[in-house]
């Protein structure tokens, strides 16, 4: 069922079993899992099916910490959420990412890796990832038909990131949600606050409004906030009528520990043998065979991280080529042909300069390899989101982001690169020039992690192992804001897996 808040009566009251706030990857995943159950579901989405500048403006806020993206540009506020512009990079967190690490404060998830594996496998289907749940070097060497670099397997591994097409949830799953007999999708419904009983241990209702101020109130047995890593804490902080500092915030944890995946330029590698096949790491041409898309990466092993007490990291290699004037002329003509062909068939495949060289030119022309990194950020309680004094169109306090890094966030990267450089040299692969700089114009991955973190106790987190807000019996949080630590890979894959797990828990809990 589909409704638009602005077409509803001025004040509407709706009853449901489940109310989900936010129709991005997390909210849509949970709603889909509840289709055809005996549960009546209301799915509230701030936007409609397309971008609207007035709705998007509600994301506006201030950056008062490290340089970061504009807050109204780092997420999309309409059906499908940020899957409307994500690149599709996917991969599971490492087993060590879930573990307690004595060199990483507040590390250790209350959920084990093995518990998430079946949900990871289901998440691959949701994200339309055609490859198997296998990220081993051995498997992908066969698929890619190229050898990974001969690094010391005790220190570094070559894995992959698999790619979703990418799946645009707002397009792919729109009709399924609209046609569901037990799901009421209400668009242009901006949630303003959660109303609770006097002790704040029960959410009585969810109050929302259209931009035209058509108000609605949803009463539900269970409420799931799935509005993203910035809006999840904001909504808890705004819901402060009975709890002065907001819901779930008895120990001042809501909004703290904002984490990203800092992106870095790391330097260059000059190969000893310029004819060495680097096809395993060909991130510029990621279609490996029909239906399977993946790009090779290098990561430090769990044993190396433990031995050297390192944060996790992920390295992307990009070959750069020498070109003669003749080469450039031929390549430019080839690029022009492919652009014309792409416009003609309206589907340009992943054939670019590197692919051209790989199949039509000689790999001796490799000049060097640039190396970039995505790194884990250490939990930092001063890196946080708060409510600002500025107000949005509803009179609600806007958001203020103070993103901060610890010295270890860059020093651990430098240590890892030194170890990688030694490994490249000792194995005769090449020499590395290390030159660490933030990636220009791209400080992080647009990944908002940790602001309502999962923990075994409310002193160090906002939700428990089932993503339920501490001391509020019927309120849950979905999305990457519950990550206690972030690893080095993109969060969407794990976010969807956790959402599938939460949906199953809700069904078991309410039946």
Question: Helix and strand layout, with pairings?
Answer:
Blueprint: E1 2-4, E2 11-21, H1 25-34, E3 41-44, H2 53-56, E4 61-63, E5 89-90, H3 113-126, H4 137-144, E6 156-163, H5 169-172, H6 174-179, E7 183-187, E8 190-196, E9 203-209, E10 215-225, H7 231-238, E11 263-271, E12 287-289, E13 292-300, H8 302-308, E14 313-321, H9 325-345, H10 353-360, E15 366-375, E16 384-391, E17 397-402, H11 407-426, E18 430-438, E19 475-477, H12 492-510
Parallel strand pairs: 1-7, 2-3, 2-10, 3-7, 4-17, 10-19
Antiparallel strand pairs: 5-6, 6-13, 8-9, 9-10, 11-15, 11-18, 12-13, 14-15, 16-17
Helix pairs in contact: 1-12, 3-12
Task: Give a verbal description of the structure.
This protein has a single domain, classed as FAD/NAD(P)-binding domain. The chain is built from twelve helices and 19 strands. It has helices at residues 25-34, 53-56, 113-126, 137-144, 169-172, 174-179, 231-238, 302-308, 325-345, 353-360, 407-426, 492-510, and strands at residues 2-4, 11-21, 41-44, 61-63, 89-90, 156-163, 183-187, 190-196, 203-209, 215-225, 263-271, 287-289, 292-300, 313-321, 366-375, 384-391, 397-402, 430-438, 475-477. Strands 1, 2, 3, 7, 8, 9, 10 and 19 form an eight-stranded mixed beta sheet that branches. The chain is globular.
């Amino acid at each position: 069922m589909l409704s638009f808040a602005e077409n509803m009566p001025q004040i509407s009251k709706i009853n449901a079993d489940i109310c989900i706030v936010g129709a991005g990857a997390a909210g849509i995943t949970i709603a889909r899992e509840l289709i055809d159950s005996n549960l009546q579901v209301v799915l509230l989405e701030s936007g409609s099916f397309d971008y609207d500048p007035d709705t998007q403006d509600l994301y506006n806020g201030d950056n008062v910490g490290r340089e970061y993206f504009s807050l109204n540009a780092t997420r999309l506020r309409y059906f499908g959420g940020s899957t409307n512009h994500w690149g599709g990079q996917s991969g599971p967190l490492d087993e060590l990412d879930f573990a307690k690490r004595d060199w990483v404060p507040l590390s250790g998830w209350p959920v084990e890796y093995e518990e998430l594996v079946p949900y990871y496998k289901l998440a691959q289907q949701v994200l339309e990832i055609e490859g198997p749940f296998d990220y081993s070097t051995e498997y992908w060497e066969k698929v890619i038909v190229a050898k990974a670099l001969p690094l010391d397997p005790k220190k570094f591994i070559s894995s992959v990131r698999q790619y979703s097409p990418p799946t645009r949830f707002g397009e792919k799953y729109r009709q399924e949600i609209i046609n569901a007999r037990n799901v009421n999708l209400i668009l242009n419904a901006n949630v303003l606050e959660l109303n609770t009983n006097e002790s704040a241990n029960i959410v009585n209702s969810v109050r929302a409004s259209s931009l035209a101020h058509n108000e609605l109130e949803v009463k539900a047995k269970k409420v799931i906030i799935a509005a993203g890593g910035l809006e999840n804490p904001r909504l808890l902080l705004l819901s402060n009528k009975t709890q002065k500092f907001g819901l779930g915030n008895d120990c001042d944890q809501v909004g703290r520990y904002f984490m990203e995946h800092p992106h870095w330029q790391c330097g260059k590698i000059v190969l000893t043998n310029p004819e060495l096949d680097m096809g395993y790491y060909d991130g510029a041409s990621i279609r490996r065979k029909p239906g399977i898309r993946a790009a090779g990466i290098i990561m430090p092993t769990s044993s190396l991280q433990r031995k050297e007490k390192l944060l996790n990291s992920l390295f992307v290699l990009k070959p750069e080529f020498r070109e003669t004037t003749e080469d450039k002329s031929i390549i430019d003509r080839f690029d022009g042909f492919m652009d014309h062909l792409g416009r003609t068939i309206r589907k340009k495949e992943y054939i670019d300069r590197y692919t051209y060289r790989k199949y039509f030119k000689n790999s001796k022309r490799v000049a060097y390899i640039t190396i970039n990194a995505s790194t884990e950020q250490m939990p930092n309680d001063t890196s946080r989101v708060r409510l600002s004094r500025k107000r949005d169109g509803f009179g609600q306090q806007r958001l203020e982001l103070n993103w901060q890094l610890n010295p270890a966030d860059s020093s651990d990267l430098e240590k890892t690169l030194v170890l990688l450089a030694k490994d490249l040299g000792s194995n005769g692969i090449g020499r590395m020039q290390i030159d660490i700089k933030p990636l220009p114009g791209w400080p992080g991955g647009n990944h908002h992690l940790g602001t309502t973190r999962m923990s075994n106790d409310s002193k160090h987190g906002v939700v428990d192992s089932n993503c339920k807000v501490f001391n509020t019996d019927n309120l849950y949080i979905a999305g990457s804001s519950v990550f206690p630590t972030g690893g080095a890979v993109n969060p969407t894959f794990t976010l969807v897996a956790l959402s599938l797990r939460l949906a199953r828990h809700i069904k078991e809990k309410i039946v």
